[in-house]
Write a structure and sequence with these properties.
- The chain contains 13 helices and 8 strands.
- The protein has 2 domains: about 110 residues, no CATH class; about 180 residues, Aldolase class I (TIM Barrel), CATH 3.20.20.70.
- With about 325 residues, the protein is of the alpha/beta class.
Length: about 325
């Protein structure tokens, strides 16, 4: 299906002049509250909503002059949306933070007081959904998730706003997602998810994807731990294979790795010739500022962001220079 003029306009607002998405991500909620509490040495209950908003505002104000867009949440992130630079587009999250842990399958849910209509009225250029997904979970579990994404895709079609889908893999058998056995399974999980959600019935406009390997288990990576899930050559081939199955434009998420590792992943994507269209980069840019905020407050965080945070986002911007315009995958004329 061809993109509407409305969706194209919004996607252009999220992209740089080359048609590449160089976006910051600051939609963390539960994990951010937990991290700030840990940095302050207090229970999570003592981290107020105002503190959450204050952190997000600092990140948005300092970093968005160097980003094409920022992803925020409507719960604590709306003040940060107002604080963003004029050049930066806005994505808003629609999902509840985390997942339903009372049932198997890591089932998602939506923020109860929101709709795509309301998100668009808040000034967003795109709706973002995160789901936990494995092609190898039980068929009835995945059928629920497929229907969930179909409904949101239809909502975004009706209100003429781009739909960004982020999927985070897991092992239904319970393997540690940071361990060797999962690192061996991760490529097929990432590739299977990219293949599934590129199908037309979901109306997804941009896939926000993990890289298909865990660098700690890729022989020859800077953080290789000694156990091999893939050789360097195999990793390159997996980047290519994942890109080949993508029927929609896709961007990489940083998935909580360090800035240096994320940049290395992007360099690997470039070496593989991967036709990705940018990044939505969160913790790799600002997570080391959390202890600064926890111990010294918002002014110290802003100072840190203006120094180390700026270095981090510039390193990512440099690494995505080989990225391809999203228009290429979408079958549209390339930016001039």
């Amino acid at each position: 299906m061809q993109l509407s003029e409305g969706k194209i306009k919004h996607l252009n607002a999220l992209s740089n002049k080359k048609g590449v998405i160089a976006a910051a991500a600051m939609d963390q909620r539960g994990s951010l509250r937990k991290s700030i509490a840990s940095a302050k040495g207090v229970p999570q209950e003592q981290i107020s909503d105002d503190m959450m908003a204050e952190f997000k505002v600092a990140v948005s104000r300092v970093l968005t002059p160097y980003a094409s867009a920022i992803l925020l949440d409507p719960e604590f992130g709306l003040p940060a949306a107002k604080a963003r630079a004029a050049n930066a587009g806005l994505l808003l999250a629609y999902e509840e933070s985390g997942y339903d842990n009372t049932k198997p399958g890591r089932l998602p849910d939506l923020l109860p007081h929101l709709s795509v209509k309301r998100i668009k009225e808040m000034g967003a250029d795109a709706v973002k959904i995160l789901i936990y997904y494995s092609p190898f979970d039980k068929p009835d579990v995945n059928d629920i998730k497929h229907a969930f994404i179909e409904r949101i895709g239809a909502e975004c079609e009706f209100y003429d706003i781009p739909f960004f889908l982020e999927f985070v893999g897991y092992d239904p058998a319970g393997a540690d997602e940071k361990g060797l056995e999962y690192a061996k399974k991760k490529p097929s999980i990432v590739i299977g998810a990219m293949e599934e959600f590129g199908k037309p019935q979901y109306h997804v406009d941009m896939l926000k994807v993990e890289v298909p390997t865990n660098s700690e288990f890729v022989e020859g990576s800077s953080v290789f731990k000694g156990q091999v899930a893939q050789t360097y050559k195999e990793a390159l081939d997996l980047y290519r294979k994942a890109a080949d199955v993508a029927q929609k434009p896709f961007i990489y998420l940083s998935a909580g790795v360090s800035n240096a590792v994320f940049v290395e992943n992007l360099n690997l994507a470039a070496e593989a010739g991967t036709a990705y269209s940018g990044v939505l980069c969160g913790r790799a840019t600002w997570k080391d500022g959390i202890p600064v905020y926890g111990k010294h407050g918002v002014k110290a965080l802003e100072d840190w962001l203006g120094d180390e945070g700026l270095k981090n986002i510039n390193a990512v911007n440099e690494a995505i220079k080989p990225a391809k315009p999203w228009q290429a995958k979408a079958g549209l004329p390339l930016p001039v």
